[in-house]
Amino acid sequence: MKTETIEILCCPFDKSDLKLTVVTQSLDREVLEGFFTCESCNRLYPIVQGIPIMNPDEYREGKLERPLLERWSKQLEAKDAVASRRLLETLDQ
Ligand SMILES: [Zn+2]
Hints:
It is a single chain. This protein is of the alpha+beta class. The chain contains three helices and four strands, in the order αββββαα. It has helices at 3-7, 62-76, 81-92; strands spanning 18-25, 31-38, 44-48, 51-52. The chain has a four-stranded antiparallel sheet. Helix 2 packs antiparallel against helix 3. It is globular and about 35 Å long. The relative contact order is 0.16. The structure holds zinc ion (ZN). It holds the Pfam family Trm112p.
C-alpha cells in the first residue's frame, strides 16, 4: 500500500483520522505490514500484505488477528514502545 493511499483513509465508523504505525516496509517504501488506530473510537485496523483490513466488527476474526498482533507487538517493542503497548491493550479487550 502506497503512502498516497494511506492519506485518504479514515475510520469507517466515525470518519476520524487514522494514525498509521508501520511494522514492515518494502524497499520502495510501500507499507507491507502495520496498523491504523482510530483516536476517537480506539479501533485498530491491521494492514496485512499491503492490504488494510477495515471490515465492520462482525466480520473481523479476533482469533485470526491475535497471533499477528502479538508478533507485531514484539517487533515494535524496541522502536515504538507506545504502539507496542497499544497492540497488547487491543489483545486484552
Ligand atoms: Zn473510529
